[in-house]
Amino acid sequence: MPRDLESAKATLDAMPPLSKEPTASSSSPPPDHPLPLYRVPTTFIEDRFKKMKDLHPYALLLSQDDLDECDWLEHAAFEPHEAASREKLEYRLSVCGELCSGLFSSGYATTSGKLGELIRSRKFPSIDSSDSDRRKVLLGHVIATKHTAPVVTDDSMDFAKDWKTKYQLAPPVGHNEDGETICLHSLGVHPNFQGKGLGKVLLQGWTQRMRDAGIGKRIALICHEQFIPFYEGAGYTKIGPSKCQYGGGGWFDMVLEFDEAPKGDLDF
Ligand SMILES: CC(C)(COP(=O)(O)OP(=O)(O)OC[C@H]1O[C@@H](n2cnc3c(N)ncnc32)[C@H](O)[C@@H]1OP(=O)(O)O)[C@@H](O)C(=O)NCCC(=O)NCCS
């Protein structure tokens, strides 16, 4: 017999005989699994994603086509004196929509829970012309522009009212394509879906996209004091009180420099 077949025969001879009865070792699940193996879930969901799992959120770039949805969301998420006007949103989505992100879900009027309730309360756009009853729902958005100042200023938050008729390459107010500071002006999640981790996911994904795009040196934002830990957790650093008087003032400057090693909770 060739030598390799001899070794195969030796291996077979050493194996226990086949039997229909389960052996002692296979009759009980391994100690790590209190359930029989066929009942152990094959997908694992981290705790931080469990609250949002029925929403199946996905992120997309925004454009002026999303104006109605962003206007609706902005005024649902922010107090009236802090919400950006429809005109300002139209400006930002038109001139630099690629700096903005939307977090969406989709569903039907028959969908259960808060998503279905919302879909029944307002006409959302259809997600697909072949399934016009399936609605695309904006859960949250990030709206941003670029500016030359190293922090967010009142000028960066403003916009030239004649922007539609008078194009300016480097306007003193509003979006400046040559600016190296990406200014985050709005981060909002619809009140029905706050506290589920969507704000964190949206901020984390958008921040990473801006870093990878290589279109600026830093991100700057202003926020109220209670949100400082939220942004610090995503790697932003508190600079100090902001000079911005937008919405009555009382803001803090926060900045994330791209050339510094990432800070904060990387699992954020
Ligand atoms: C801020 C906002 C975007 C957070 O989105 P969210 O989906 O509710 O937040 P998450 O569920 O991802 O939670 C993120 C963290 O922010 C904290 N947070 C959320 N809302 C907060 C608030 N009003 N005050 C203080 N902390 C808050 C949460 O405690 C959470 O921290 P934790 O994970 O340690 O518990 C959302 O609450 C919102 O749209 N608020 C109104 C608009 C606004 O003020 N935005 C600007 C912030 S400068």
UniProtKB/TrEMBL annotation:
Domain N-acetyltransferase positions = 117-259
Please indicate which superkingdom the organism of origin belongs to. Answer: Eukaryota
User: Could you identify this protein by its name?
Assistant: Acyl-CoA N-acyltransferase
Region Disordered, annotated ranges: 1-37
InterPro entries (UniProt xref)? Acyl_CoA_acyltransferase, GNAT_dom, SNAT-like
Sequence ranges of Low complexity compositional bias: 17-27
**GO: which molecular function terms?**
aralkylamine N-acetyltransferase activity
Q: Which UniProt keywords apply?
A: Acyltransferase, Transferase
Question: Where are the bilayer-spanning segments?
Answer: none
One annotated Gene Ontology cellular component of this protein: cytoplasm
